[in-house]
Amino acid sequence: MANHKAPQVITTSNVNTLMASSEVDQKYLGTFAKECNDSNPYLSSFLYKVLGLSVLLSKKLLRARRLRKLDTTRDTKSLQLYHHIIWLAREGLVMIEQYIIPMSTSHDPVLNVLALKLRASFYHIFVLFHNQPSVHQTAIPSFSTPTINNKNKSTNRSSLASSPSPLEGGPVQPLPPGLNPVSIPKSSAAFLLPSTDYIPAATHCFTEASALADARLGGSHPVRLSVKIELAAYMYDCLHDGEGSRRLAKRAIKDV
Question: Is residue 212 within 8 Å of 111, Cβ to Cβ?
Fold first, then answer.
């Protein structure tokens, strides 16, 4: 029997907040890159690189939002866009983690918060576009044991009672040839980035950036607001914590 790959469709309507917060990030990236051009040209060069990458990534996310859904099962422009987004986010994360964060700790606290926030943003993209298991209901379905998804749906257990157990009688036959257990196919971008669960890493990065923003920046600072806005979106879209997302947004507005 041929292996049938379940279609992976990524909903992209939830990238709006990423795009909105990136405008603030890009403004401060350009400002810091210019300011430290003489005192620390090495740091300045990486800030300019991340700024350029962020501009390109924003354009890709805008295209993804217009498509609404990315079909990653066929070699189309949609699949190429998906690969470009993952590649850009991966390269940006490398520069942030290996170069900018270590150098920003002894620099302006705003730059330090911004670097941590950008790291969280790249992980946010991984969760939205490349997480395994997917955070979208329209992505690769689960082939595991059925579970209760919500209050309106429940597992049909009547079929379990109609099948006698091996102890009640009837020979236990092995699976017919070709009916091997179905395995979930790997993501088409697995050659760019491992297919794994990025939610723990993204949550940790957002928590660290938010805590530092609270400690070092005022409530009305644009970078702090950028952290809070994207964290609220991440909680809503990826953690499916609508109540927590609303509380965070209300608290951020109150602190202004």
Answer: no
- Burial bucket for residue 154 (CB in 10 Å: 0-12, 13-18, 19+): exposed
CA distances from 172 to 91, 159, 163 (A): 52, 17, 11
Torsion angles phi and psi, residue 11, rounded to 5: -75, 130
CA distances from 79 to 116, 169, 170 (A): 29, 51, 49
Rounded to whole angstroms, how far apart are CA atoms 131 and 28? 29
Length, in residues, of the chain: 256
**More confident of the two residues 244 and 135:** 244
Statement: residue 177 has pLDDT above 80: no
Contact between residue 64 and residue 16 where contact means Cβ atoms under 8 Å apart: no
Q: What is the pLDDT of residue 181?
A: 52
Can you tell me the distance from the alpha carbon of 222 to that of 230, in angstroms, rounded to the nearest whole number?
12
User: What sign does the dihedral 133-139-143-147 (CA atoms) show?
Assistant: positive
Spatial distance between the Cα atoms of 140 and 190, rounded to a whole number of angstroms? 14
Helices (H), the chain: 16-35, 41-67, 77-95, 101-104, 109-130, 158-162, 199-216, 222-237, 242-255
pLDDT of residue 66: 76
User: How confident is the model over 219-247, as a mean pLDDT?
Assistant: 93
How confident is the model at residue 160, as a pLDDT? 38
Query: SS3 for 38?
Result: coil
Global pTM exceeds 0.85 = no
Residues 6 or more apart from 97 whose CB is under 8 A from it? 119
